[in-house]
Specification:
By secondary structure, the protein is mainly alpha-helical. The chain has two domains: about 5-75, RNA polymerase sigma factor, region 2, helix turn helix motif (Rna Polymerase Sigma Factor, Chain: A), CATH 1.10.1740; about 105-165, Orthogonal Bundle (Arc Repressor Mutant, subunit A), CATH 1.10.10.10. It is built from seven helices and two strands, in the order αααββαααα. The protein has helices spanning about 5-25, 30-45, 55-80, 100-115, 120-130, 135-140, 145-160, and strands at about 80, 90. A two-stranded antiparallel sheet has the order 1-2. α1 packs across α3 (about 55-80) and α6 (about 135-140) crosses α7 (about 145-160). About 10% of the residues are buried.
């Protein structure tokens, strides 16, 4: 395969690479950088490509490996080593300590709010919360599915009102 043919086929793959690059990076600018780096690596390693094989898979593999290498490199840069006697590995981005007392108070308030719900609303709500589907709740409680949906909606609305102080916390 000539360099011109290789380059033409490589350029043809760019539109297919864009969604994959965005899926990996979750950022438009980083996705474009990843595509550019992938194209550079593919073109500089064209002699390693075997004619007759799947070029698209080859380029996608280059992109995935490039992304993983860059990710690992950035993770290593964020980690530093304490050179004291204990040799702790510390990740500099997670130095925040949290106190679980607030979570405990919130959980107690949530449980109290659910207990204060009328049984008419709390039973379908708790069944839904435990993973039952609307039609299963309807069958078990022998009520129409529309009533199930309405009772769950009203339970959520009432819980939202009674737990309003926590709205800006989570």
């Amino acid at each position: 395969m000539t360099a011109i043919d290789f380059n033409h086929k490589l350029q043809y793959l760019i539109p297919a690479l864009e969604p994959f690059a965005f899926k990996l990076t979750k950022d438009n600018a980083n996705a474009k950088d990843l595509i550019q780096e992938t194209m550079l690596k593919a073109f500089s390693n064209k002699d390693k490509f075997m004619a007759g094989t799947n070029m698209k898979a080859w380029v996608f593999t280059i992109m995935r490996n490039t992304f993983l290498t860059n990710y690992q490199k950035s993770a290593r840069q964020k980690t530093f080593i304490d050179t004291s006697d204990n040799l702790h590995f510390i990740n500099s981005t997670s130095t925040k300590q949290e106190n679980n007392a607030f979570s405990q108070f919130a959980m107690e308030d949530i449980q109290e709010a659910i207990q204060n719900l009328d049984d008419t609303y709390s039973e379908p709500f708790m069944m839904y919360f435990r993973g039952f589907k609307y039609h299963e709740i309807s069958d078990r409680l022998s009520i129409p599915i529309g009533t199930v949906k309405n009772r769950i909606f009203l339970a959520r609305k009432e819980l939202k009102q009674s737990l309003a102080p926590y709205a800006d916390r989570y």
